[in-house]
Amino acid sequence: MATPRTSSQERFAQFKLVLLGESFVGKSSLVTRFVKDEFLEQRESTIGAAFLTQTVSLEDNKTVRFEIWDTAGQERYKSLAPMYYRNANCAVVVYDITQASSLERSKAWVKELQHRAADGIIIGLAGNKLDLEDKREVPTEEARAYAEEAGLLFFETSALTGENVLELFTEIARKVPFENSTARPRMSAKGVDLNKNGGTEAQGCNC
Amino acid sequence: MEDGAKDDYIKDIYRHASPNADTDSFLGSPTVAIDSTLSTSNSLSNLNLDTNDSSSSPPAHNDDVPDIAEVLQEMLATTELPSSTTDLDYEPELDLVGGHRRNLGQLNDYGSPRADSFVSLDPPSIGTEVEQFLSKKKQFFILSSAGKPIYTLHGSDDVILGYLGVLQTVVSAYQADESGDNLMSFRAGKTLVVVAVEGPLILAAVSKIGESESQLRAQLDVLYTQILSTLTKNQIHRIYANQSNFDLRNLLQGTDVYLDALTREIVNGSPSILLGALEPLILRKSIREEIDGVLLSCRTPSLLYGLIVSDSKLANVIRPKKHSLHPPDLILLFSMLFNTTSFRDGEHWVPICLPKFNSTGFLYAYIHFFSKSSALIQISADKNAFFELREAKQQILSQMEDKGLIKALERAEERGRFKPVDVAVPMVRHFLYKSRAHVQYVMPSYETHYYEPHMQRGLLTFYHQLHAQVNSDSSRGSNNGWRFMHLVRNSCIGFAWITPSFELYCVSGPNVSRATLAASIHSIAKWVSQHRERLFVIGGAVF
């Protein structure tokens, strides 16, 4: 539910967002640019997942707070992904414009999200590393055509320069219906599915 | 090689019935000194390197095995390599290159792209890269039993693949002779090679800096623990049961930084890894108890362990009555947190196997750095517990803030270790004190005598020697666990005192009498005992 503030027209909503994509396409770098407006030249691979939050202000006095799961791209974490996208309102699937194979991996993620994530999930496709134009392998038009066909928002981004990063997240914030917003953080904490995979515990391997 | 027994190249080949035997049981193991007369080239061909699958090749004759071992360690021990103009004088080396390539042929059959790129280097160049590799004083190799590289400290694939092939062949030759033995270690001059076979993985450490076999074995165990923490023992066994030539690097992708961090610590002489113990944060007893109280009061149902760690030093731990935490697991976890930048921002939810707790399954760690160098770690068996633990974190931090405990932690961290003068033993420059009951160690700061990094490194090397000597087979007598060692060098004197409750290693300047040192060592033990509640995390808070 949207949780409108009491004051006149101000509206506040909180969305859960998950980042998916192959390893080394720059998911963590995109989030770091969005959340802290920083870029680390040497970044270590994410293991498991990192959880971050960031707020964006929209027109009409709307404020959106993102709760972001920045997931690890490695194959060994694949089986954990449903845990992160299960309750997500929106997702950013990232590929690297200099690696054609990473777009193929993105398509698989999109398919999985469309089949298994919540209905109405807003998916953005981000072709990252736009600053490496001279090494481009994925033509913009090809990716855009795919995105349109699959019903995705589409941006080419550069976490290094910051190009289109805020635009990507802002556009997603505009597209997610306010009614779909998760309730207050405290409530959402309880809302995480504790039953679906209950009892797997230490056996819940991520092979 | 007739005078091999006097020669540096004489080898002791240790063979052992149990692959996991600890050093204690080493006492009874047979030691075979081999005097080899075969040339290295012969020994290579004896090993059937050119068959398609050396691991399934017929068992090598026992008589030949030592020669292969000799070849391998000669390769590892050699620092001077033939220049290209003297190739003919170094036939054995050239033949090794041949072995190299044949072995690569196998790897190639398994479809490794890296092997592909290597084969095109024909012949493999013996140049500066190899020289650099061979000049390293310390090496670690992790490979699969099919000879596939998993991790190496030094050397690119081009350089190491041949060595790994030989190593794998030697190890499998021992396994193939039906005695159920595994190769444990061998020595060439000052170079010691220690091998650990862990299921489908082979780990090897090569040291030219005088570490003991048990020290190197402990180091290998730390690296193996890291690999298990990512994949679990079950997964590794399952993977190789399905596909014996699997390239494990695919699955370990991204974890090199953690293995690198551990090997860096090992190479730097980490006292924590030497002693297999944690360093606690020195904290007033009342502060530690207050923090324990906060952690306990905010505990949620899914919590298994809760820890607060400052700059790799354990400040607090809460745990269930039934379970204790295992220092090797924590050494690993702390190294991941504090020797890399991965976790510095935000909150993290990480599946991790703590192998000494349970090597077959995953736990989930909630990790959050609440200051520049202090982290809260909450470990749960429930993979869906993130938000529950996140909420607990918010309560823990706000309570700690209210009670001034975060500031107290910061102050403790700033104060750091105690100073040698605090202990009032003026002749002692530095010491390591390990409480065996708590599996924790304390030491004074390096300042005064060891402010330069190279001095610290020298000190730690000396501790390794002292530790090796006092824990060597010959000094492990009956004495009910009491041992004593006095080691005199030109520049310093070392003193080790092992009792059932503690291990104490101390270093003084030269020309200090034994009596003075003995008195000092008693003072240290007494001082530590008096301050134990401030120095150590005693048991942690139990729920």
From TrEMBL, chain A:
Pfam families reported in the protein's UniProt record: Ras
Topology relative to the membrane: Lipid-anchor
GO biological process: endocytosis; endosomal vesicle fusion; intracellular protein transport
Keywords for the protein's UniProt record, in alphabetical order: Cell membrane, GTP-binding, Lipoprotein, Membrane, Nucleotide-binding, Prenylation, Protein transport, Transport
GO molecular function annotation: GTP binding; GTPase activity
Cellular component annotations (GO), alphabetically ordered: early endosome membrane; endomembrane system; plasma membrane
InterPro entries: P-loop_NTPase, Small_GTP-bd, Small_GTPase
Annotated CDD domains: Rab5_related
Entry's localization field: Cell membrane
Family: Belongs to the small GTPase superfamily. Rab family.
Name the record gives this protein: YALI0F27181p
